[in-house]
Specification:
about 200 residues; alpha+beta; 6-stranded mixed sheet; 4 helices; 10 strands; about 20% strand
Length: about 200
């Protein structure tokens, strides 16, 4: 910690004195108070940063695993499927997190009648014990309201938003799927949800 002490002492000891007006304190006591306070502040910042980074890594890891699992699916409910991503796919653990829908896919082997699997799949990935959150403006994640609003915001790989035609096509025929991932990277479950996020069956 000596380097940290030296850095903060050199950078801000005079400012600290002016701010708290304790220039009459013994120099050794000034340095001790300043360094103790600064170290606690640094530790707090580091802990916060680690937590944020940890959440980012876990979120991206979950999306990567869920994506690989979805595109590897061959059949759903006895019907052949072949899913293709319509969204920019997460490829790195340190990739910037984007809020909203984790994954949007089209089933290239879709064959009516529209019973699961439908033409499109809206995916949400949760790592370990993470659960669906409730947003102020759009309601609970993966609810129909949340999906309809989030589809208006999602970006395609070319950085463009969904066309009106594609948007209308998706909301007529999609499966909301929640994928839960274990800490070892295996799939814990894939659940089909209803419009209120209740689990209605395995996917």
């Amino acid at each position: 910690y000596q380097y940290v002490f030296d850095f903060w002492y050199t950078l801000g000891i005079s400012g600290w004195q002016k701010c708290f007006r304790f220039a009459d304190f013994p120099p050794r006591l000034q340095t001790h108070i300043f360094c103790s306070f600064s170290l606690l502040k640094i530790i707090k910042i580091c802990i916060t940063t680690i937590k944020l980074l940890n959440n980012k890594i876990k979120g991206n890891f979950g999306e990567i695993v869920a994506h690989k699992n979805i595109i590897a699916l061959k059949t759903v409910n006895g019907q052949k499927v072949k899913y293709k991503a319509l969204h920019p796919v997460v490829t790195s653990l340190d990739q910037k997190i984007t809020k909203g829908i984790d994954g949007l896919y089209i089933n290239e082997l879709f064959n009516p009648p529209p019973i699961p699997p439908h033409k499109y799949l809206v995916s949400e990935a949760k790592f370990n014990t993470a659960t669906l959150s409730v947003t102020k403006s759009k309601g609970k994640q993966m609810s129909r309201k949340w999906i309809l609003e989030s589809l208006r915001e999602i970006k395609l790989p070319n950085d463009e938003k969904l066309s009106r035609k594609l948007y209308r096509d998706i909301i007529k025929s999609y499966d909301p799927v929640l994928t839960k991932i274990n800490t070892n990277g295996s799939i814990k479950s894939m659940e089909l949800l209803d419009s209120k996020t209740n689990k209605i069956g395995k996917f």
